[in-house]
Amino acid sequence: MIRGVVLAGGSGTRLRPITKIMSKHLLPVGTEPLIYYPIKTLRDAGIKDILMICGAEHTDQYLRILGSGKELGVRLSYTIQQKPIGIAQGLGLARAFVEGEKVALILGDNLFGDNFKDAITAFKKKKRGAMVVIKEVKDPQRFGVVKFDKTGKKILSIIEKPTRPPTNCAVTGLYLYDNCVFDVIKNLKPSARGEYEITDVNNHYINEGTMDFIKAKKFWLDAGTFDSLHQANLLVRKHQK
What are phi and psi of 120, to 5 degrees? Predict the structure, then answer.
C-alpha cells in the first residue's frame, strides 16, 4: 500500500497580500481551488488515503472546503505544520499516518497533466528506495535540477537552484519513498537557509543507489507565484472548456 501526503503548509509570501487572509492553496484555478488538483492527482493514481498537512492559520479553511474528502472520492486526515521549515520537515509529520507503508508526497501548489497510476503501481513492487518525477523546464535555476550520468538513465545528484544548471530537468513536487524516509528525515541537518531540504533526502537515496525517476510527459506547473498562478488558470480553463 502507498499512503498519500499533500503538503499545504507554508506562508505563501510570493502571493502577498492575498495570502495574509487565505492560503494560496485555496485560490481558484479554473473552477476549483488549487488544492483540488494535487488531491486528484493522487486519487487518479489509485491513492485514496491522504493526509493533509496544513499551516496552522488556515486549517479551518481546509476543513470547511475539503471536509472528509468524500466529495473528491478520497479519505482525508489532517495535521498541522506549525512552522514551515522545509518540505522534508513537513513530510516527517506524516510518520504516524503512514504506519510503516510507502508514501507519495505531493506539494499542494503543483498541477500535473499526467496520470501516474502506472508509475505508482511499479513503485509498489519496489522493495526499497525512492522515485522522483522530473520535467524539462525553461528556467531550471528556480528548481532542484538533475545531473545525469553519461547514459542519461541514472541520476548522479540533484542540485538545488544552481546558477549553472547541468541540465534543464527539474525535480517536480511529486515524490515516492519507502518507509525508511522517516529515518532519513530524522537525521537531517538544516540547510544554510535553516530548512530541512527534500533535496537532501533525495540525494541520500541517490547515494545509496536506490533512486529511480520518471519524466512527466504533459504539463507541470508550480503555481506559487502570481505569474504561474495566472498561467495555471489559463491552462486549466482551456482544458475545462
Answer: -75, -35
Say whether pTM exceeds 0.90: yes
The residue whose grid cell reads 537532501 is 200
Q: Give 192-197 contacts, CB < 8 A, sequence gap 24+.
A: 194/85, 195/85, 195/86, 195/88, 195/89, 196/85, 196/86, 196/87, 196/88, 196/89, 196/92, 197/86, 197/87, 197/88, 197/160
CA dihedral 122, 179, 145, 140 (to 10 degrees): 80
The domains of the chain, with CATH numbers, are: 2-240 (3.90.550.10)
pLDDT tens for 138-181 read 989 888 999 999 888 899 999 988 999 999 999 999 999 999 99
Burial 23-61 (b: 16+ CB within 10 A, else e): bbbbbebbeebbbbbbbbbbbebbbebbbbbbbeebbeb
Rounded to 5 degrees, φ, ψ at 44 are: -70, -15
* Alpha carbon separation from 131 to 41, 78, 154, 188 (Å, rounded): 16, 25, 12, 19
